[in-house]
Amino acid sequence: MLDPWVHPILALLVIAFCVAILIGLITPVVSIAAAVTQTVSYVIFFLAADAHRAQNFVRCAEITLLCVALTLLGPGAWACDAALFGRREIVIPKDRRPL
């Protein structure tokens, strides 16, 4: 049996991560934390639940993969990270450019 405090704690964590991702605050760190939280919650609920496992797995896998994609993409131009740390510009030297 799950502790009754597990559901609200996970829900508050997910809400906090969603707000941070929405405003673009420390996007890579928050999206990794969201992916880990989603995976942990899936494992907890998978071990506790009997019904709808395949459907829950697909949902959790989608959200986890979206969090990983956000980690790889990083914050956008209008994110708080861009305002705090500046926009990142990648300059490719002319001698390294393909023909």
Structural commentary:
The protein is mainly alpha-helical and 99 residues long. It has one domain (6-96). The protein has four helices and no strands. The protein has helices at 6-23, 27-48, 53-73, 80-85. Helix 1 (6-23) packs antiparallel against helix 2 (27-48) and helix 2 runs antiparallel to helix 3 (53-73). It is elongated, with a radius of gyration of 18 Å. The chain starts with 5 loop residues before the first helix and ends in a 14-residue tail after the last helix. The model has no long low-confidence stretch (mean pLDDT 78).
Tell me what portion of residues adopts beta-strand conformation.
Answer: under 5%
Structural class: mainly alpha
List the domain count as a whole number.
1
Count of distinct strands: 0
Radius of gyration: 18 Å
Overall 3D shape: elongated
Tally of individual helices: 4
Mean pLDDT: 78
Uncertain segments:
none
| Distance between the amino and carboxyl termini | 63 Å
Helix content: 55-70%
Layout of SSEs?
Elements lengths: L5 H18 L3 H22 L4 H21 L6 H6 L14
Helix pairs in contact: 1-2, 2-3
List keywords for this structure.
single chain, 99 residues, mainly alpha
Structure in a nutshell:
68% of the residues lie in helices and 0% in strands.
